[in-house]
Design brief:
This protein is α+β, with helices and mostly antiparallel strands. It has nine helices and five strands; from the N terminus they run βββαββαααααααα. A hairpin with a 2-residue loop joins strand 4 and strand 5. Helix 4 crosses helix 6 and helix 8 crosses helix 9.
Length: 183
C-alpha cells in the first residue's frame, strides 16, 4: 500500500520491485499501470519504466493476464525476457511457473515483432537525440556540406552512421564527405 495525499493505494508489484522499495515510510517513485476490467480495477506498480513497458506488452498477448505478467516479471528481468523472445528461447520462458511450451511459443509469436519495432524506435530516438545534443557543430557541418551541393536529407542520413559525439566541425565535414562520396 502506497500512501499519497492521505489516500492509500493498493499496488500489485513484482518481487523485483518489492525488493527495491526500501523501508516502510520512505518516499518511493513507482511507475503504475491502471488496469480496468468489468469486475475489477487494479493498480500495478514497477520501479522502472522498462519493467512497466514489458508488463504492458505482456498483457497485450492473448491468454496472458495482469497477474500472470506480474509473475513473469518476478521471475525474469525485462531485458532477459526481451532477449528470450527475440532469440526464440522457449526454455527461458517455460521456467516461469504457469507458462508451458504452448504459452511460451504464443508469447514469442505475438511479441517478437513488437519488441523489434520498439528497439528500432529507441534507436531512432537515440540517434535524433545525439543530433540535437551536438546540434551547433552539426548545423555548421550541414551548412558547409550543403554549400558543396549535397542535400540536407542525404547529409543527415550520412551523419546517422557517424559517431558524432565530440567531433569538431571540420571532422564532421571530412567524415560526411567520405560517406556522401561513397553513395
Amino acid at each position: 500500500v502506497v500512501e499519497t495525499a492521505g489516500i492509500g493505494y493498493k499496488i500489485y508489484v513484482s518481487e523485483h520491485t518489492m525488493a527495491k522499495l526500501g523501508e516502510i515510510g520512505e518516499k518511493v517513485k513507482i511507475y503504475t499501470h491502471y488496469h480496468v476490467r468489468e469486475d475489477n480495477i487494479s493498480l500495478y506498480g514497477f520501479m522502472s519504466n522498462e519493467e512497466l513497458k514489458m508488463f504492458e506488452l505482456l498483457i497485450s498477448v492473448s491468454g496472458v493476464g495482469a497477474k500472470s505478467a506480474l509473475v513473469m516479471l518476478s521471475c525474469i528481468e525485462p531485458s532477459d525476457f526481451a532477449i528470450a523472445v527475440i532469440s526464440n528461447n522457449v526454455k527461458v520462458l517455460t521456467k516461469v511457473p504457469g507458462i508451458g511450451n504452448k504459452s511460451a511459443q504464443r508469447i514469442i509469436l505475438e511479441l517478437k515483432d513488437k519488441l523489434k519495432e520498439e528497439q528500432l524506435e529507441e534507436k531512432l530516438k537515440d540517434s535524433s537525440k545525439r543530433l540535437k545534443d551536438n546540434s551547433e557543430n552539426i548545423n555548421e557541418a550541414i551548412s558547409g556540406l550543403m554549400v558543396l551541393g549535397y542535400s540536407k536529407k542525404d547529409i543527415e542520413k550520412a551523419f546517422e552512421h557517424l559517431d558524432i559525439d565530440n567531433l569538431s566541425i571540420e571532422d564532421l565535414i571530412k567524415k560526411g564527405l567520405i560517406l556522401l562520396s561513397q553513395k
